[in-house]
Specification:
InterPro entries: D-isomer_2-hydroxyacid_DH, D-isomer_2_OHA_DH_cat_dom, D-isomer_DH_CS, D-isomer_DH_CS1, D-isomer_DH_NAD-bd, NAD(P)-bd_dom_sf. One of its GO terms (molecular function) is hydroxypyruvate reductase (NADH) activity. By secondary structure, this protein is α/β, with parallel strands linked by helices. The protein has 2 domains: 129 residues, 3-Layer(aba) Sandwich (Rossmann fold), CATH 3.40.50; 183 residues, NAD(P)-binding Rossmann-like Domain (Rossmann fold, 3-Layer(aba) Sandwich). The protein has 13 helices and 12 strands. The mean pLDDT is 97. The protein binds 1,4-dihydronicotinamide adenine dinucleotide and 3-hydroxypyruvic acid (3PY).
Length: 328
């Protein structure tokens, strides 16, 4: 006798191959248009469903989880970061949470290197001149940037993406330093040729480039606050492909305007799409629309992870990528 299929609701359009596979395996409700669900649509969505598949643009907070129907048992996030989900409340209600780590590590690390190069070698300025048709030929002193080789890169949050950035940076001849909640094993540290700093303040003060890779949690909120940003060298550059909330965006904007920090490369913002307009005016700041994991391959593999998490749960086991409050 065939068992009843799990009912699954997906909040955003996903790659076609992922939607097709989800439809084959589950009783799935897909989204018609590619806008985030409104709050009332989200509340409606969690009423009579076993599994919710949200993503970073949805607020799955205590209020929403509290309004969910009894049937909801799994929140299978499409994405690695889970700062938009109240994991503790979900757990207290017996709702499991899973995410999709690992498959977007290399893509996000590649984009981090792209941002580092864009800021230090002034790629957007060069592109703008070419687009305007204003280029009047090579000049010995035009568009000079800084060489990456030999520079000190400080990685804040040496997890999957931080370590992938460390490997790339080493290939560019950079000296890798890091601060992490926990020190890496000696073997991994040796393999990465990375120097550990117990004191974030001390590391920040000595780096040429600081790259942020810790998740957004209560303990990382404004970890790079005005006081710490002030510790950076005036020639220092900060890059963030993690979450905007880790940096005080207003303080960063002010300090770049004042010449206290040399530049920034940002993929994520403290207030989502509401980017500080002053940040947009700065020539030494490169801004991307949260596209760190945006490869065709990565987005399909994220979907495959979601499916494996749901399927494993359906088979009576814990999802392989289960997130519990103690991990955050
Ligand atoms: N821009 C984009 O498109 C993407 C952004 N992300 C973001 O990147 C974050 C990191 O992803 P992964 O490397 O896969 O996560 P991970 O869990 O492997 O690594 C995070 C690291 O940060 C460290 N950490 C946590 N709190 C800390 C603190 N207070 N101080 C110092 N270190 C701390 C952890 O110990 C861990 O080593 C995600 O949480 C997500 O927010 C992830 C994928 C794509
Ligand atoms: O997975 C995440 O956390 C993202 O930010 C989008 O890929």
């Amino acid at each position: 006798m065939s068992r009843e299929r799990l009912s699954v609701v997906v909040t955003r359009r996903l790659p076609e191959a992922v939607e097709t596979r989800l439809s084959e395996l589950f009783d799935v409700r897909l989204r018609d248009d590619d806008t985030p669900m409104t709050r009332s649509e989200l509340v409606e969505a969690v009423q009579d469903v076993d599994v919710l598949v949200p993503t970073v643009t949805d607020q799955i907070d205590a209020g929403l989880i509290g309004q969910a129907g009894e049937r909801l048992r799994l929140i299978a996030n499409y994405g690695a970061g889970v700062d938009h989900i109240d994991v503790a409340t979900a757990r207290s209600r017996g709702v499991l949470v899973s995410n999709t780590p690992g498959v977007l590590t290399d893509d996000t690390a590649d984009m981090t290197m792209g941002l580092i190069l864009s800021v230090t070698r002034r790629l957007p300025e060069g592109m703008a001149i070419m687009q305007k048709g204003d280029w009047d030929g090579w000049a010995p002193t035009a568009f000079l940037g800084g060489r990456l080789g030999g520079r000190r890169l400080g990685i804040l949050g040496m997890g999957r993406i931080g370590q992938a950035v460390a490997r790339r940076a080493a290939a560019f001849g950079m000296q890798v330093h890091y601060h992490n909640r926990r020190r890496l094993r000696a073997e991994t540290e040796r393999e990465l040729e990375a120097t550990y700093w117990e004191s974030l303040d001390q590391m920040v003060a000595r780096m040429d480039i600081l790259s942020v890779h810790c998740p957004s949690t209560p303990s990382t909120f404004h970890l790079m606050n005005a006081r710490r940003l002030k510790l950076m060298k005036p020639t220092g550059v900060i890059v963030n492909t993690s979450r905007g909330e880790v940096i005080d965006e207003n303080a960063l904007t002010r300090m770049i305007r004042n010449g206290e920090i040399a530049g920034a490369g940002l993929d994520v913002y403290e207030h989502g799409t509401d980017v500080n307009p002053r940040l947009r005016e700065l020539p030494n700041v490169v801004l991307l629309p949260h596209m760190g994991s945006a490869t065709v391959e990565g987005r399909i593999e994220m979907g495959e992870k979601v499916i494996i998490n749901i399927k494993t749960f359906e088979d009576g086991h814990r999802p392989p990528d289960q997130v519990v409050p103690a991990m955050l």
